[in-house]
Amino acid sequence: MASPAADALARPRRRRASPLVRRADLVAATVSCLARLGAKGTTGREICRQAGVSHGLLRHYFRNPDNLLLETYEQLCEDMLAQLEAAAMPFAADPSEALHRYFVAVFSDDWAGPDIIGAWMVFWQQARSRADFAGVSGSFNLRQRQLLERLVAALPARTDALPMADAIALLSAVLDGLWIEYYLSDQRTPRERCIALCDAAVRRLFGA
Length: 208
Known about the structure:
- By secondary structure, this protein is mainly alpha-helical.
- The chain has helices at 4-10, 19-41, 44-51, 58-61, 68-88, 95-106, 109-112, 114-129, 131-152, 164-184, 191-206.
């Protein structure tokens, strides 16, 4: 009869998730809770219950477990900017195509699913009343517009063009509005329609 030690050696060992994977799981659980329960219902205990981890693990993966929403917002902003840049910049030599790829990324399942947009609505509400959320929101919007400016700057110049800041503000407003419209009804305004309307806005604003 084999000893317990031999049995243990014979059994396959479960591989522990890496810290990055575990933190990503907790961020995803936070997003899901925000979309379903709002800010008040998104507690550390509920996040851990959904992620299937102990409450004590939060301290290993977040700087301040009492401020999970802010850290989740910061992480999502960084992830979204990185993904948008990765989608668009390889096509920078063809700015119209680069902008199209940017819009495709915005309306991808990663960034236009009901959970992520629902969570973003909560973040926007927090930014209205909390300086720390407002700071993250301001930084994200500035960097997002800077990325759009980099792409738009490569388009042929127009003599009747709006000032760059105004044109980027209008394009951002169109993009955000369609993003919310898609969240409210993906049947009324399907994904491909949203992307096509963003492309049309670029042609109208920049003559691309």
